[in-house]
Amino acid sequence: DRDNKNSRQPLRHPLLIKDGGLLFNSQGPLRKIDACSNLIFQNQDDEFHHSIEKDIEGNIWVPSTIYPQSLPIKKVGRDISKDGGYIDDGIVKISPDGEILFEKSVSQIFIDNGLEYLLFSTSTDLKNFIRDPIHLNDIQPVDFSGEFWKKGDVFLSLRHQSMVLLYRPLTNKIIWKGTGPFFHQHDVDILNNHTISIFNNNSKFFKYGDTVDGHNQVLIYDFKTNEYSSYMNDSLIKSDVRTITEGRNQILKNGDLFVEETNTGRTLYFNSDGSLRWTYLNRSDNNKIYAVSWSRIIYNNSDIEIVKNFLQSVDKCND
Q1: Please, which residues have CB within 8 angstroms of residue 229's CB and are 6 or more apart in sequence?
Q2: Residues 21, 40: Cα–Cα separation, whole Å
Q3: Contact present, 43 and 98 (Cβ < 8 Å)
Q4: What angle do CA 288, 292, 196 make, to 5 degrees?
């Protein structure tokens, strides 16, 4: 009631649904409300956070913090009273009705796939382990099979590993592991049957804290050539886009680029030729700048149809 009451909640990565409802989380329950703001469901099984994405079957994929932790006590303990304890990030698949269909600890995925050394090989002060080694910030479901992935796979963005994974829940196998030209990245998107985009925060822990080393980037990885390339790099430099944490991007079908610079409350839209079409700063009448919380760009026909359904539902609220 004190820290997480409704009046204090940001709507993180809100997602409109065909039925006119709205899904969102607030570093806590996953909620769905209808167009009249009535609560449809509230899943409190875990603490849900970061991205919300829907797969082709209508199921919802969202990161969570699993507690009690799924890893053994001898490895991570259970105490949360002092510093919050070990953050056991999990990937969760939830039905359209709000029921958990699948849940898996990312730390356990690492252990099962021979990557445990990335979890417990360093410490903060030679006494305490790193309590947040994963920091899952995006789950992108794969809705079609192809040469490099299968329907039902998921891409995972792991900030504190500076790593992107292609994971297959059906077999509990990591299919591909991407590291290298990005740091503390967010927002993995599938562009076509062989390329993905990644929002590279390019932030690094230097002597005096977490700092963007230059500017943010939109990177494209091509599975066919095993090569990375940057997208509209000069445009992002010119507009001085450099959010340390968070951040979103969407490359549209026509080549336009939408970017959210979360830390500064700014969104930008670039034409396909790299020119800036518009920018929006979330400044209030009191001249203060307020947070944005993982915006989405509404641009294709199916998105527009969902918005129309929502508006028609709103019209019925006072009937």
Answers
A1: 219, 220, 222
A2: 8
A3: yes
A4: 145
